[in-house]
Design a protein that fits this description.
alpha/beta, 23-stranded mixed β-sheet, 5 helices, 13% helix
Length: 586
């Protein structure tokens, strides 16, 4: 019996010890919030380096995730995670970290994600991450990193993403990224990188996306991207690259899908530059200094989007897209284009959906310019010098859904001279000196936008006129809105009889900015023709100035001194009167 009692006591003690151990392991620091003993949230608690060790010692051993972000940590001490070898994700972003202890992460052999972004780290050493063999994502962006020691990432054999954007790196050597054979994404954007050594990325033969935008890279060589055979997206925008040739891009030509080279200093595109890039779908060359493009540079590419805006091009040649069959969007806006050769878009006839020629020097729109563009849905030729449109121009574009002609020099558009305009669902014609827009009978879901003209204005009224004439409107609707943020509101709609072409708007306030919209009301309410304008009423001072100038014109040159003398006398009398009143009050 005694033996049984001793055995029972021993079992009970063992159970009590196990229970106490479990309670200790599963307890949570009062500073943090724990979920199921696997997730600890200690963020935004004003935790400092001195406190964090005590907090970690109070957390469950079985943790797989801990968030210590948005605190006041400046140093990660050695062995601070020695109790938490099961961690798979750590978030320490938005602290003030400057130093990573030599053995800080050594116990974390299961760690897959490490967030260290938005800190004050200034260098990465070869010991910092040497034991993190299972790490897949490493975020070091938004720090002050100037130096990465050689082979700092050599042991991260499973790393898939490395984020180093928004640091102070100036160069990349052949030893910087050695060992990252499984890396898929590398972000080096927004640094000060101006030197990339040959073979700097040679270990990255599985890399899919490389971001080098917003740096100061000047030169590329035939070995800059050596061995990067799997690259799908390359961003070199906002650098200082002056020239580029096919040898620079040859390594990844069979897999590349997106190339961004905007905001550089490239002046010429040679014919073989993108040759054999059969999977290239997006090419962005915006805001360079491109004056010359060889005729065959885009031939046989499977491009979907081409951006060439803000360059120095003057002509679109007939051969440029002769054998380019798949492009859906082309942007040539804000160049110096004055000539589009007949048949320039012939190769794109069945694929091109959007064409942007805004901000060039075109003076006319001819039928031959758009011949064969049966699939085009959006065309912008705003802010050119266009004053002539071929009567068959729009008839060549049967699927056109939006036409932007705003900011040109069109003075008259009449239906008999422009076939098919009333079939385009959205037409923008603002900022043209249009005097006549007549004969168009719109049916269906149509939106037309025009500018009205201000005939005259004073401090209380505005006289306006508009170009739209004809149609089958029932009456005119005039909407006036006060655009100033003042207590004086004026938001009113009134109506005019059909077919009038001008109106006087009364009851306004001086020195106030107004929006005015005059539109015809049709039986079919889906047709909207908006004629809009903005005007600022004059003020009392402006009226006095205008009146004085008007009187001055009517007074002969010999009588001007007399008028000036009268004005001076009036001013003097007012001053004397004011002085007398002030003396009496005192």
């Amino acid at each position: 019996m005694k033996r049984f009692r001793d055995k029972t006591t021993s079992v009970c003690m063992t159970l009590i010890l196990i229970w106490m151990s479990t309670v200790s392991c599963d307890s949570c620091s009062p500073i943090c919030d724990c979920v199921e003993n696997y997730f600890a949230y200690c963020d935004r608690r004003d935790v400092t380096t001195g406190h964090v060790i005590n907090i970690l010692d109070q957390l469950p051993i079985r943790l797989t995730y801990i968030d210590i972000s948005h605190n006041l940590l400046s140093v990660l001490t050695e062995n601070m995670f020695h109790r938490h070898g099961d961690l798979t994700s750590i978030n320490i972003n938005h602290n003030a970290l400057r130093i990573i202890g030599r053995r800080t992460f050594h116990p974390l052999v299961r760690l897959r994600k490490l967030f260290l972004h938005h800190n004050n780290l200034f260098q990465i050493t070869s010991d910092d991450f040497s034991y993190l063999k299972q790490l897949q994502k490493l975020y070091l962006n938004h720090n002050r990193i100037r130096v990465i020691q050689e082979r700092s990432f050599a042991h991260l054999e499973n790393l898939l993403e490395l984020h180093l954007e928004r640091n102070y790196l100036t160069n990349v050597t052949s030893q910087t990224f050695i060992g990252l054979t499984r890396l898929r994404i590398l972000n080096l954007s927004d640094n000060n990188v101006h030197v990339i050594s040959d073979f700097a990325f040679s270990s990255l033969f599985n890399l899919h996306k490389l971001y080098l935008n917003n740096n100061t890279v000047i030169n590329l060589t035939s070995h800059t991207f050596s061995n990067m055979t799997s690259l799908r997206e390359l961003d070199l925008s906002h650098n200082e690259i002056e020239s580029i040739n096919s040898s620079h891009l040859d390594t990844f030509k069979h897999h590349i899908r997106i190339i961004r080279l905007s905001s550089n200093r490239i002046a010429r595109l040679s014919g073989d530059l993108f040759r054999e890039m059969n999977k290239l779908s997006v090419l962005d060359l915006t805001q360079n200094k491109i004056k010359e493009i060889d005729d065959d540079v885009f031939w046989y590419l499977d491009l979907q989007e081409l951006y060439l805006q803000a360059n120095l091009l003057t002509t679109v040649t007939r051969a440029m897209f002769l054998y380019t069959y798949s492009v859906k969007a082309v942007d040539f806006s804000y160049n110096l284009i004055h000539t589009v050769s007949p048949g320039s878009w012939a190769g794109l006839g069945q694929s091109l959906l959007s064409l942007n020629l805004t901000g060039n020097d075109l003076t006319d729109l001819s039928k031959s310019m758009v011949q064969g563009m049966e699939a085009l849905r959006m065309l912008s030729v705003a802010n050119n010098q266009i004053f002539i449109i071929d009567s068959r121009f729009i008839a060549e574009l049967p699927d056109l859904q939006m036409l932007d002609l705003s900011g040109n020099k069109l003075t008259s558009l009449v239906s008999r001279d422009l076939w098919g305009l009333e079939l385009v669902p959205r037409i923008l014609l603002e900022r043209n000196p249009l005097r006549h827009f007549s004969g168009f009978v719109f049916v269906g879901e149509i939106h037309v936008s025009l500018s009205l003209s201000i005939i005259s204005r004073n401090d209380r009224t505005v006289n306006v006129t508009w170009p739209y004439v004809g149609g089958n409107q029932l009456y005119w609707s005039v909407t006036v809105k006060n655009m100033n943020n003042t207590e004086t509101k004026y938001d009113v709609t009134f109506y005019l009889q059909a077919y009038v072409t001008s109106a006087t708007i009364p009851g306004l306030s001086p020195l106030t900015h107004y929006f005015i919209c005059v539109r015809p009301v049709f039986v079919d309410e889906s047709v909207k023709v908006n004629q809009i304008g903005y005007v600022t009423t004059s003020g009392w001072d402006e009226l006095v100035t205008q009146t004085t100038l008007s009187l001055d014109k009517q007074v002969s040159r010999s009588s001007r001194p007399t008028l000036s003398a009268i004005l001076y006398c009036l001013i003097f009398m007012v001053m004397v009167r004011f002085t007398s009143i002030s003396g009496l009050e005192s």
